[in-house]
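Can you make up a polypeptide sequence alongside its tokenized fold?
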Amino acid sequence: MRRAHADFVRAGARAQRTLALTRGEPMAAHAPDPVAFRALEHAGWQRAARRYDDAFGSLTRQAIDPLLDSAEVRSGARALDVASGPGYVAAAAATRGAHVAAVDFSSAMVELARAQNPQIEFQEGDAEALPFPEGSFDAVVMNFGMLHLAQPERALAEAFRVLRAGGRYAFTVWAKPEEAVGFGIILDAVRKHGNPDVPLPPGPPFFRFSDASECDKVLKVAGFRNVDVRKVPQVWRFSACGLLFEAFLAGTVRTQALLHAQSAPALAAIRDAVGRVAGEYENHGTVEIPMPAVLAAAGKP
């Protein structure tokens, strides 16, 4: 396991050069296309909603308590979960006694979240144009949603708008691929065995907010103060090494589109390579992939 992790630390720089693979990091010649990028993400999450829990649920749940703690979500607080997905964060906030509202742009995700959490108000909504008045909430949170947005600065401005003065905002994203090793594995396999330059709608850089200084900058530009950015350790666990590839294929949007765009021989080679490297992280029969999150939090003055 130590050798495998060291290999992917060294491979991290190579993986970041292929960020066009996931969620459309634009290459130098391609400016982001917000309309096309949003359409791709929306269609993808409509399809992936019911497979997300098996693919990523056990992993993304690990950041929920640190996220809610950073936003000071407690009993009696008015909390908004943006890009709420299957409702994991909203449900956890409600368990703390918060008064929770939640929005997601995918009707399939909203339907799933309502079915699992009928006591919570879930609605379709746009993170970049929230359907709430100014000052409606004490806390706004977003768990791994920022990297799916076509115009994240608009989402930050909207979060600031709907917060009361003194309210808290917090979001999570993935760490860089040399740290969030699952991404390093899949990106490196595509770079070595496939075509990372398949035509997909260009969007914001996937690992943009993995950089603490970038989080600090955009939050302050949006009007937030007292910014704090830190890492949240997480481990992605699988019962078999082949399940890492299947998780990316089933529970993502951009990565899935990239993989489906490969030739059949290339896809088979990528699958084999991902499984082979994932196997190097096996520990007593369980594959354990380091997947830390970056957690950024700030207050509205």
